[in-house]
Amino acid sequence: MEPRIDLMANELGAKIAKRVYNVSLAIEQSTLPKATQHLVMLRVSQINGCAFCVDFHSKDAAAAGESTVRLNLAAVWRESTVFTEAERAALALAEEGTRLADAHQGVCDETWAQVRKHYDDDQIAALVSLVAMINAANRMNVIVRNVGGSYEPGMFAGMSS
């Protein structure tokens, strides 16, 4: 399968991608734990069927020291023992925030209470923004049919400005 368009080769597409990347940098630099960030990006990308982003985020997480077991079990985190209560709350928020069309109320009060229990306001702002941004990135990549497999950790490191 070939991508429909190379957004990075298009002047406007590259400008938009750079802005999205810069928002992601602000989230990355927050106090939301890096492991949680990686797990959320991976899980949302799995839900949305974004091969490019699953490739990207699983490889970045592994390069950052995340275990293969946790990466493999992210899709079935509810039936796994390898995630903390805080990570489980973040993953629940990520799933509910991603499946808005499936859950008419959006994020349920129970999930929100668990997130509140484990994260401060800055971390919650980062988490909510992370869910929104990874969903946007997934949708862009799925629409243009960017494929997974060729990502190398850190290959977008010089993209900000």
Short description:
By secondary structure, the protein is mainly α. It has helices at 11-28, 34-48, 51-63, 68-73, 85-98, 109-118, 121-144.
- Give the SSE string: HHHHHHH
Major pleated sheet: none
Beta-strand proportion: under 5%
CATH fold descriptor: AhpD-like
Work out the count of structural domains.
Answer: 1
The CATH class label is Mainly Alpha
CATH architecture label? Up-down Bundle
Number of strands: 0
Radius of gyration: 15 Å
CATH superfamily: AhpD-like
By helix and strand content, what is the structural category? mainly alpha
Number of helices: 7
Binned, the helix content reads 55-70%
Q: Kindly, what is the distance between the CA atoms of the first and last residues, rounded to a whole number of angstroms?
A: 32 Å
Shape: globular
